[in-house]
Amino acid sequence: MTKIKICGLMTIEDIDAVNQAKPDFAGFIFAGGRHHIDLDQAIKLREHLDPRIISVGVFVDAPIEEILKAVNSGAISIVQLHGNESEEVVDYLHDKNIKVIQVFNPTDEKFNTGADYTMLDSDSGEILDWKNLLIIPDILAGSINSANVDKAIKIVKPKIIDVSRGVETNGKKDINKIRQIVNEVHNS
């Protein structure tokens, strides 16, 4: 069964929605942008999150101390590296028994195979050309929504689908869209 991560959670209402839909992973973004939250917010959201849902923290070239603080606080269980982090950073996190998702985009010529999961994301908001991927990722992201998730799973066969904006209406998480895509992925 393919799993799913709902990323970019920011509010208690977002947490309530994922608690009802039961995705496998929930993502908190510490990397700036529209979905950015701080550690105090993430701790509060994690307290409300169903303990069976694994929390992931998204970082872009963050200081290792910041990453460790988020893990040690209990806000997150897995670290997602979305920048230009080196293999040494991945190795250091592994030495601390922290699982790592390393994110790549289709133009990357090499990728870190030391991570627990590789994730392919378009970084452009565009749908990837799934039929011509050079990297077959563990996790697939990039403009995925209910209308195209079945096709993405059939073509790429990722272990995990990652969505954020694809489950939003007017810039906010939409419980109906979350429920629908979680059901589609879990039944694929």
If you had to describe this structure to a student in words, what would you say it looks like?
It is a single chain. With 188 residues, the chain is an alpha/beta fold. It has one domain (3-186): Aldolase class I (TIM Barrel, Alpha-Beta Barrel). 31% of the residues lie in helices and 21% in strands. It contains 6 helices and 10 strands, in the order E-H-E-H-E-H-E-H-E-E-E-H-E-E-E-H. The strands form 2 sheets. An 8-stranded parallel barrel has the order 1-2-3-4-5-6-7-8, surrounded by 4 helices. It has a two-stranded antiparallel ribbon with strand order 9-10. Helix 3 links the parallel strand 3 (54-59) and strand 4. The protein is globular. The termini are close together. The model has no long low-confidence stretch (mean pLDDT 92).
Distance between the termini: 7 Å
User: Which sheet architecture does the biggest sheet show?
Assistant: 8 strands, parallel, barrel
Could you give the count of β-strands?
10
Q: Which strand order does the major sheet show? A: 1-2-3-4-5-6-7-8
Overall geometry: globular
State the secondary-structure class: alpha/beta
CATH superfamily descriptor: Aldolase class I
CATH class: Alpha Beta
CATH architecture: Alpha-Beta Barrel
Number of helices: 6
- Rg over alpha carbons: 15 Å
Percent in strands: 15-25%
Report the order of strands and helices: EHEHEHEHEEEHEEEH
* Global mean pLDDT: 92
What is the helix fraction of residues, given as a range? Answer: 25-40%
Quaternary structure type:
single chain
* Uncertain residue ranges: none
What's the number of domains? 1
Might you state the CATH topology name?
TIM Barrel
Domain N-(5'phosphoribosyl) anthranilate isomerase (PRAI): 4-183
Pathway: Amino-acid biosynthesis; L-tryptophan biosynthesis; L-tryptophan from chorismate: step 3/5
Catalytic activity: N-(5-phospho-beta-D-ribosyl)anthranilate = 1-(2-carboxyphenylamino)-1-deoxy-D-ribulose 5-phosphate
Protein name: N-(5'-phosphoribosyl)anthranilate isomerase
